Amino acid sequence: MALIVQKFGGSSVANAERVRHVAGIIADNYAEGHDIVVVLSAQGDTTDDLIEKAQELNPRPSKREMDVLLSTGEQQSVALMAMALEAMGLPCISLAAWQVGIQSTSVHSDARIKKIDTERIQSELDQHRIVIVTGFQGVDRNGDVTTLGRGGSDTSAVAIAAALHADLCQIYTDVDGVYTADPRVCPRAKKLDVISYDDMLELSSSGAGVLQMRAVEFARKYQVVIHSRSAFSDAEGTYI
User: Fold this and answer.
1) β 191-192/178-179 pair status
2) Ramachandran assignment for 205, one of left (phi > 0), alpha (psi -120 to 50 degrees), beta (any other)
């Protein structure tokens, strides 16, 4: 039995059909006896839609209020996933960052995670529940919600994996691993079975969209094993 943190991006949970599909992946891993923590992004274009709603009312909203607004996207995702898993008869609980105790700096829209209190997550795991956590967000020392910047759910997942000393952090996206170049642009790009933290950092800094650079830095610092793979195929993916 292993402790696995699984992160699913917005495209992976974009609609009810995809939520059910991801719930099936989670259920299969849970059935193997693993402890599972799931980190989710907002569904599909939800974040962009929320930004558009804000612009309709105020072209220059404060970053604090934008964080309050944008954090609702991930809260929708985790609640809906919990409902899907409950419908399958699986024990689970959805938690927002403030409930988990993901403490961050106070830089709204680009906060950094400082510390994670693992007591709540561990308590739920001890009761054999699947724990579903909002990605992309934290809470500062004033109790205000913060967000971690685009791609921040990757960092959330790696940070939680580090704090829990998880055996593996799986990052599910719509591509089946890490390639030497963008396969949509370069047909000769090759998928890598394994890549080092340093090489992954170089790819991320040059614009590769597979993983947020900050997440890779976190993984390197705390030696978190990342498995980048597709939510839509059984391809083995890439280990980082």
Assistant:
1) antiparallel
2) alpha
- The tens digit of pLDDT for each residue in 47-70 reads 999 999 999 999 999 999 999 999
Distance CA(1)–CA(7), nearest Å, equals: 19
Q: What distance in Å separates the CA atoms of residue 24 and residue 29, rounded to the nearest whole number?
A: 9
Number of H helices, E strands in the chain: 8, 13
- 112-145 confidence digits (pLDDT tens): 999 999 999 999 999 999 999 999 999 999 999 9
CA 132 to chain centre: 10
Q: Where are the beta strands (DSSP E) in 28-75?
A: 35-40
How far apart, in whole angstroms, are the C-alpha atoms of residue 196 and residue 212? 15
C-alpha closest to that of 11 among 229, 183, 232: 232
User: Could you give the CA distance from residue 28 to residue 38 in angstroms, rounded to a whole number?
Assistant: 13
- Over residues 74-78, the mean pLDDT reads 97
Residue among 155, 153, 146, 159 nearest 109 (CA): 146
**CB contact at 8 A, 106 and 144:** yes
First to last CA, the chain: 21
Q: What is the pLDDT of residues 169-184, one digit of tens each?
A: 999 988 888 888 777 7
Global pTM reads 0.94
Residue 185 pLDDT exceeds 80: no
